[in-house]
Amino acid sequence: xxxxxNVAKFGGTSVANYLTIQNCADIVIKNENTKVxxxxxxxxxxxxxxxxxxxxxxSEQIAEVIxxxxxxxxxxxxxxxxxxxxxxKLFALLDxxxxxxxxxxxxxxxxxxxALLSMGERMSSLLVAAIIREKGCHAINFDVxxxxxxxxxxxxxxxxxxxIGKLAQQxxxxxxxxxxxxxxxxxxxxxxxxxxxxxxxGSDFTAALLAEALNASTCEIWTDVIGVYTTDxxxxxxxxxxPELSFEEAAEMATFGAKVLHPATMEPALRRDIKVxxxxxxxxxxxxxxxxxxxxxxxxxxAITRRKDQVLVTVKTPKMMYAQGFLxxxxxxxxxxxxxxxxxxxxxxxxxxxxxxPPNSISEKMNKDTLKALSEICEVKVEHDFDAVTxxxxxxxxxxxxSSKIFAAVSNFNLRMICxxxxxxxxxxxxxxxxxxEVVKVLHAALFE
Length: 449
Ligand code: ADP
Ligand code: ASP
Ligand code: MG
Hints:
449 residues, binds aspartic acid, alpha/beta, six-stranded antiparallel sheet, VC0802-like, 2 domains, globular, binds adenosine-5'-diphosphate, eight-stranded mixed sheet, binds magnesium ion, 37% helix, Carbamate kinase
């Protein structure tokens, strides 16, 4: 029999407080196919945890940050009808959090950072399960680390799909007959049982991975917008929600900055043909976006995305004559440092590429080690204050007039880099950060209004 299982994920703003969690619980209970609920940390909590993990703070400053987290969590606890059910567990988690935050090596050890960063999801999943129970449905809080096996690249761990599949079938599937399972997004564990995390925004990815491991037919991403829009609705109020998207279009949008989906979310969905829904937990009646393999309509232009905080790196070898093998050496260094390069332009003696460097990321990408290694073989120039703007669509290479329409719209801006994607779905520009909002707006006006 084909599966009808649905995995529902609720993001930080959806689980921000008692009232917003009520909406989530209603959504879960209304769909009898929803057996697995994946939650993020309450809004703001992970940012505080990153601050504790990455900054050398005084004891008083640590106390202040922890207090801010306590206020968020206790506000939810105190609204519960029977706080005593989960009080002890929540206090134990807050104590555990404080222990990591005050560990003398917290700023230097990524394994400790991950243990600390996981606390937000561990607390919210406890509280969300309690609120679903309040509404009369049996729900349990399940420790995702039992099934979400990853490698040990702390702060940016890679899931081990085969093991996750086996563990989920063995340990998670049997639970679904008994109760609604509420579990943590973003968090995993390595083969030694040590806590890992999947990178910022990783809860969407967790939901898709669990949907894959449990052979679910659908995966819902409930957030603070009524679907995926033609561009970030925070940039322009002309942005329109999209009723449907293909897996490829959604993957491209996520990779190039549509924060509404973590970049890796579409991978499991694509492998197992799991339909992904994106909608607003505050306004579920407004519907949302369905992401599926085949769309009725695949237009040349689908959306515009922006990725902020791009670092532009230019490496150049002065030895023009000996340039063979130069590119290979540059990429060897990049690969060794685990950096992923998205936009790149090359010539025989120089290569420019962009790296992400968003605020609140857990690790700084263009670090001293990378710079040193590159400087040994070439001149290196690192420039900040750039954003990447991407037009996502279909058959962009071949459709007549497609690029001319785009270039005409942006002709007044200084474009630092222009890249056609290696596939047919994108065309990207690197522009100065002060211009990017305007670039998105003029492109949106030209292509969608
Ligand atoms: P959550 O906490 O639920 O995971 P996020 O903040 O990670 O939510 O993602 C939702 C946000 O993504 C929206 O508030 C919106 O500003 C932003 N966003 C960026 N691009 C898009 C887009 N194309 N469509 C919808 N939202 C987008
Ligand atoms: N709480 C994590 C973050 O803020 C993961 C997530 O919300 O998806 O990055
Ligand atoms: Mg998110």
